[in-house]
Specification:
This protein is of the alpha/beta class. It has 3 domains: 231 residues, Phosphoenolpyruvate-binding domains (TIM Barrel, Alpha-Beta Barrel), CATH 3.20.20; 76 residues, M1 Pyruvate Kinase, Domain 3; 117 residues, 3-Layer(aba) Sandwich (Pyruvate Kinase, Chain: A, domain 1), CATH 3.40.1380. The chain has 17 helices and 21 strands. The protein has an 8-stranded parallel beta barrel with strand order 1-2-3-12-13-14-15-16, surrounded by 6 helices. Helix 10 crosses helix 12. The longest helix has 18 residues. The radius of gyration is 24 Å and the shape is elongated.
């Protein structure tokens, strides 16, 4: 089941893709990471999906990553006594903490944290940004606003407060319960929704420890304001363009996507580009040309992964969407311009943070180019060596060998990494012999082809990448 591409595919499971048969088809079609959306479904639903994923993993002999995506704090208005109301531009509209029978004049907003952060002049976006309000007067229990952009408003529609750091945790009580379920099921990655600051990641890290990697979903302008600090604190990043596009102008999202991808590559953090990538395939068997171009752009930028949401969770063509996404990636990666773009966007090390691993991986990248090596073989316990090798975007794929099954699964998200679970190795000769055997067995190299192996000695000590060896398969 070796992939012939470097960028990875994340696919969301849902009603259209919950059976063991469809999950197996999705993996064969090209899924590397399965996303469990904890905004929907019960613990039993997620448990059944995990069992099907692990059965596919055992059947195909290739580690598969599971990403548990937590809902995060959902801010919503209350209900309306007489059904949906029509708000007109220019009219006053009151939001209040106290319960009220919702009308075209006022509605309950049961979130004291919003009122604590509001100031006159602040904007509130309702129903995914379809309606826009501006605050004229406010206190800790209410806000008098003026409708800037009107429209139809119904029960429990979402509220966004762009440009304001809300005094709330990224983990609700529901998230904490869901986190226990996800970790109990052996999730490899946990995605935090609505991250605002690095402290949100620290809070999650205290609960998760080393049991799973953390993906920071960038959906809030507040997180963009401290982007470097958030990326430094997390293990991976998701460019969640849906909510980001609600709280920021649509024209701001494409350059911001490029900025985030570049910053993640510089730090060596895997980055996923998500939301509406093949949206029309929820109904259509083929994507639009614009959607194909959108996927291709993320790949040209060097993203580690692209993600399907409703296309695979609730769409009519979940397997077809994965197949088409895989074909788009493969077509981009054989384009000579792709390598030129990767070389041109190759990021220098973070100033002041260069270490021995950086020097080894820099030498590895150069050796691969000079020798036309067929593979980069990484022996790793923690995954640090393989992630550091993937950061280089070298011309050869990364064959990652680890005795830790959890590490092997987690690395399925990283660009160019073909992850294998192997037994313990110790000593340079054993590492070299295993590297040659695996490169041949997995179809990366023919007998006599060169490969570059990197590892850390003493083997098994995380973060000690200090060895490079050139061998032949």
């Amino acid at each position: 089941m070796r992939r012939t591409r470097n960028a990875k595919i994340v696919a969301t499971l849902g009603p259209a893709s919950s059976s063991a048969d469809v999950i197996d088809q999705l993996f064969v079609a090209g899924v590397d990471v399965f996303r469990l959306n904890f905004s929907h479904g019960s613990a039993d639903d997620h448990r059944a999906r995990v069992h099907a994923i692990r059965a596919a993993e055992a059947r195909h002999g290739r580690p598969i990553a599971i990403l548990a995506d937590l809902q995060g704090p959902k801010l919503r208005v209350g209900t309306f006594a007489g059904g949906p109301v029509q708000l007109e531009a220019g009219q006053p509209f009151r939001l209040q903490l106290a319960p009220t029978a919702g009308s075209a004049q006022a509605v309950t907003l049961p979130h004291p944290e919003i009122f604590a952060a509001l100031e006159p002049g602040a904007e509130l976006l309702l129903d995914d940004g379809k309606l826009r309000l501006q605050v004229e007067r406010c206190d800790r229990e209410s806000a008098d606003t003026r409708v800037v952009v009107g429209g139809r408003l119904s029960d429990r529609k979402g509220v966004n407060v762009p440009g304001v750091v809300l005094p709330i945790s990224a983990l609700t009580e529901k998230d904490r319960r869901d986190l226990d379920v996800a970790l109990g099921l052996g999730a490899d990655w946990v995605a935090l929704s609505f991250v605002q600051r690095p402290q949100d990641i620290d809070e999650a890290r205290a609960l998760i420890g080393s049991r799973a990697g953390i993906v920071a979903k960038l959906e809030k302008p507040a997180a963009i304001a401290c982007l470097d600090e958030v990326i430094a604190a997390t293990d991976a990043v998701m460019v969640a363009r849906g909510d980001l596009g609600v709280e920021m102008p649509a024209e701001a999202v494409p350059p911001l996507q490029k900025r985030i991808v570049r910053a993640c590559r510089k730090r060596g953090r895997p980055v996923i580009v998500a939301t509406q990538m093949l949206e029309s395939m929820i109904e259509s068997p083929v994507p639009t040309r614009a959607e194909a171009s959108d996927v291709a752009t993320a790949i040209y930028d060097g993203a580690d992964a692209v993600m399907l949401s409703a296309e695979s969770a609730a769409g009519r063509h979940p397997v077809g969407a994965v197949q088409i996404m895989s074909r788009i990636i493969e077509r981009v990666e054989v384009d000579p311009l792709y390598r030129q773009f990767l070389e041109a966007s190759h990021s220098a090390n973070v100033p002041g943070e260069t270490d021995v691993a950086d020097a080894v991986c820099c030498a590895m990248r150069r050796a691969v180019a000079l020798l036309h090596a067929r593979a980069i073989v990484c022996c790793t316990h923690s995954g640090h060596t393989s992630l550091r090798a993937a950061r280089e975007r070298a011309e050869a794929p990364v064959l990652s060998l680890t005795p830790q099954l959890g590490t092997a699964r987690r690395l399925a998200l990283a660009w160019g990494v073909h992850s294998l679970h192997v037994g313990d190795v110790a000593g340079v000769e054993q590492i070299t012999a295993l590297a040659a055997e695996m490169a041949r067995r997995e179809g990366f190299a023919q007998p006599g082809d060169p490969f570059v192996a990197i590892a850390g000695m003493p083997f098994g000590t995380p973060g000690t990448t200090n060895l490079m060896r050139i061998g032949t398969a």
